[in-house]
Specification:
This protein is an alpha+beta fold. The chain folds into four domains: 1-43 and 178-364, Multidrug efflux transporter AcrB transmembrane domain (Multidrug efflux transporter AcrB transmembrane fold); 64-166, Alpha-Beta Plaits (2-Layer Sandwich), CATH 3.30.70; 370-416 and 536-740, Multidrug efflux transporter AcrB transmembrane domain (Multidrug efflux transporter AcrB transmembrane fold, Up-down Bundle), CATH 1.20.1640.10; 439-520, Alpha-Beta Plaits, CATH 3.30.70. Helix content is 60%, strand content 9%. The protein contains 24 helices and 13 strands. The chain starts with a helix and ends with a helix.
Length: 740
Amino acid sequence: MATLLYRLGRGSMRRRRLVAAIWLVVLVALGLAAATLRGPTASNFSMPGTESQRAIDLLAEQFPAAAGATGTIAVKAPNPGQLGTPEGQAVVQKVTQEATAVPGVLGAVDPFQVGAVSPDGQYALIQVQFSGGVDTVTDEQRDAYEKVGAEAQSQGWQVAPGGEVLNAEPEVGSTEAIGVAVALVVLIITFGSLVAAGMTMLNALIGVGVGMAGLFALSSVVELTSTAPILALMLGLAVGIDYSLFITSRYRQNLLDGLPADEAVGRAVGTAGSAVVFAGATVVIALAGLAVVNIPFLTVMGLAAAGTVTVAVLVAITLQPALLGFAGGRVLPRRLRSTVAVTTEDSSGSASTDHAAPEAATLTGEDRSAFGFRWARLITRFRIPVILVGVLGLGLLALPAPDMRLALPDAGTAPAGTPARVSNDLITEGFGPGFTGRLAVVVAGDDAQATTAAIPQVTNLVQGTENVLAVAPPQLSPDGKTALLGVIPKTGPTDPATETMVHDIRAAVADVPGADVLLTGVTAVGIDISEKLSDAMPIYLGLVVGLSILLLMLVFRSLLVPVKAALGFLLTVAATFGLTVAVFQQGHLADLVGLDTPGPLISFLPILLIGILFGLAMDYEVFLVSRMREDFVHGDTAQQATINGMGHGARVVTAAALIMTSVFGGFVFLDDPVIKSMGFALAVGVAIDAFVVRMTIVPAVMSLLDKAAWWLPRWLDRGLPNVDIEGEKLRATLDNKATV
């Protein structure tokens, strides 16, 4: 692989104008396709095979009028008892008429007809039924719905439209640019060159642009959840910068070693590029592996992010060498460009010359007094205390993890002041938390008579279930074969008692004769999804850990190194889960991340975090340990090889981790709590894995294992293919050519 990438890197530099033109054409073409073909994103989460989804599908088929999106308008009179007066009733009826007139609304229910009025006569709930699903509601319809009751509000009433119809796509604004700005600063400090930093950032941004444009172009034929593009952007930007950083750093090192520019870029792509391809492949495999969980929206999210990572890899090993050819020696700090010629050629044979200093090799990491070497010597000297402190420290951070609760987001955790949150708080204030998480029981018989006969029994069974506050009168489909009963729990949507109640209702109505009885609703859907994801998480974690051991065994030709890497990954995941639970669920230091209301974590966050962190953890493992193996194979002792690997890789890995943490951390400033928690968990996970696990615990363990770290049975060594990720064969080939 290294030889192939070596040729690709040299070819891309020599034909840099053609390569740059091709990527520019691809970017423009996909941008135009995205602008013309972009489809809507979905804000709902479907889960085939669950009872709640079967009920939704049944309603869509037999009772479509009840299968559309719903809204709830909370109304609060200025004074208690005012809804009992003719004037108060007239105000509420006027608001009901306004809601009925909203485009796309089938009808709004007068709260006085169904008893949706609080006992103190100050609060009322208006149920609104839309004709289409949540994803079919247009921005114009949503705006009209949010303006309902404006006249009543001018008279001192509170009118708060809410419900699932307000679920909207999270917006990506200027806040995440903070992460990009921090990343650029880190690049400038790392390289000491504006040209190198700007070129690396430009390369990453082009990759993100191509990946996101391609994703949006496909959105017309593939249903994307609203969080899928955000995740793809987050990952594509982070790995794009990191991968370009690794190749640029190796290119600079090769220049300072006195290699011609085309040879320097060829070897950079052949060695660092090999690690980039492998690291990118692990991320892609982990994300694509989400498909084994068999959850459609999660599969789409994984594949969307995997697509942007794939583009980032392709851009790094093709466009990056081309941009390096344009930059020449300007990737070095200005003071180092004056004494050695750096000649670059293109396919036409024309050449340009820059200058770099041969004596500047100390900047490549060869200075044994550099921080990376000092840190490695300190770690290896006190390896046992370091291991104990590191493992115990991460164990303490992981303590909150067993208390993790999962749920789909509800309006109760929406940012304060948003329409959905205002409506939710008003409903809770006037009626209690159960009214914000209504459930629906679907009763479907073979004919109208069977359904009618089953309704009283179902109603009695549901009313007799613990924690049920009320059961609404049934709504019948036009043919009378399907009925819908509203169920109001005493507790909120994410309360554990509500989850228990859902299971109790399903058990109670399972054997009703003559009809199929199914429980659904947004709350039930969230419970079903959370349970299925929780059941799938151990399977997926085992798959990822097993995969990491196999891949690293292939790369490092060792048994203990892969096991050590997998155990380190488990420490990272546990500590990350613990910190995320402590902040977003338990509320510790929530103000620092701008979180208004703590609550359960989004259902898919843990399994998604496992997949992403696995790939990113393998990035740093490969970049650090591959240099250790390289030096050990070339004759250094195991101890010295460990020190050399850290000494050479610490600066670049530190910069890469800071960049990735900054990019992910930029998403913490978004208002959407789901995106906020994803950005926080990824930023914390990368920081823990890079600085605590890979750069502290890993060298300590490698020092403790000594030569045993590189042991592999001969029969297994013969059976494993040699991927040559360190470019050992490439260097041997090039050295042989040089001596001929």
